[in-house]
Amino acid sequence: MQRQLNEQSGEAKKHGLAADDVQPHRPDWTIDQGWSNYSVEEHAVWRTLFDRQSKLLPGRACDEFVEGMKNLPIGPEQIPNFEALSEVLMKKTGWQVVAVPGLVPDDVFFDHLANRRFPAGHFIRKPHELDYLEEPDVFHDVFGHVPMLMNPVIGDYIQAYGLGGLRAKELGVLDKLARVYWYTVEFGLVKQADGMRIYGAGIASSFTESVFALDDLSPNRIGFDLERVMRTHYRIDDFQESYFVIDNLDELLALARIDFAPVYEHIKGLPEHQPGTVLATDRILSRGSGRYHRQKQEIEQGGTSATRQS
Ligand SMILES: C[C@H](O)[C@H](O)[C@H]1CNc2nc(N)[nH]c(=O)c2N1
Ligand SMILES: N[C@@H](Cc1ccccc1)C(=O)O
Ligand SMILES: [Fe+2]
């Protein structure tokens, strides 16, 4: 599981590269991927992540994800080369993958997306942090996001988000727009003929959340509603308590095309919702018990007999 947005400020945090890894970046924050510099150990971390995730995703990831992955030069042996990815992507949907050192400032991020460049972290997590990291690394960005960029609808949607981001910043409503990205591109679920599937990169790249999001009774799964999502906080430190579900990917295209300005205006000053809240107006597809988050809270407060012993 990884969490890359700072909901409060929406600002990029300082990246945490090792001192010997610092590379000056260009004004658009891109750097060279430096593919030949990856060590044997780094490629091995990729393989570990790739193998365990490839076993989990059949039957869990949506068909478009599986299809995208199949046609890309992404495999277990090595960390993918961004130039090779871009060549295939460019032909299919006109996207490129560019390397960045970590989180980049919002306007830089939006400008890349608006120009169909996907900024991907060039570094890979360390062997002791396979399941948790604070910034998007090459595994999250490439394994999680790039397969979906092979889909024309998602390609158009993410470009439109970049353009919408620049506008939302002007209007001072970036936090509202960021929630739409979070609950679609990062943590979205989609209905398919044979059941609910993952299309969000934050789930697809997470060993634990790709199981939790679909199998566990804990989270709520709620039909996507734009205003509802814009008013809903999200968790950056744990699994989501609620996921929002679209009926098909084309629903995103409609979102990309409508003007959000009147929606921002309409929800101004209206109350916001906590991540785990279920509303009377929600279209509930499955309602979680909240068991996971409740138990965790108890443990943190030292309240259960199991944790008090020792
Ligand atoms: C709101 C916006 O989507 C978000 O804060 C941005 C900031 N910078 C980023 N930078 C990178 N590299 N990746 C990201 O997902 C983001 N997200
Ligand atoms: N249509 C939105 C922009 C947007 C596109 C795609 C995803 C999310 C938002 C707007 O008018 O601002
Ligand atoms: Fe991401």
TrEMBL record:
A Pfam family it matches: Biopterin_H
Designated name of the protein: Phenylalanine-4-hydroxylase
EC number: 1.14.16.1
Signal peptide: none
One example GO MF annotation: phenylalanine 4-monooxygenase activity
InterPro entries: ArAA_hydroxylase, ArAA_hydroxylase_Fe/CU_BS, ArAA_hydroxylase_sf, Aro-AA_hydroxylase_C_sf, Aromatic-AA_hydroxylase_C, Phe-4-hydroxylase_mono
Keywords: Iron, Metal-binding, Monooxygenase, Oxidoreductase, Phenylalanine catabolism
Region spans: Disordered: 1-26, 288-310
Originating species: Variovorax ginsengisoli
Pathway(s) the chain acts in: Amino-acid degradation; L-phenylalanine degradation; acetoacetate and fumarate from L-phenylalanine: step 1/6
Catalytic activity annotation: (6R)-L-erythro-5,6,7,8-tetrahydrobiopterin + L-phenylalanine + O2 = (4aS,6R)-4a-hydroxy-L-erythro-5,6,7,8-tetrahydrobiopterin + L-tyrosine
The gene coding this protein: phhA
SUPFAM superfamilies reported for this sequence: Aromatic aminoacid monoxygenases, catalytic and oligomerization domains (SSF56534)
Annotated family: Belongs to the biopterin-dependent aromatic amino acid hydroxylase family.
Coiled coil, from the record: none
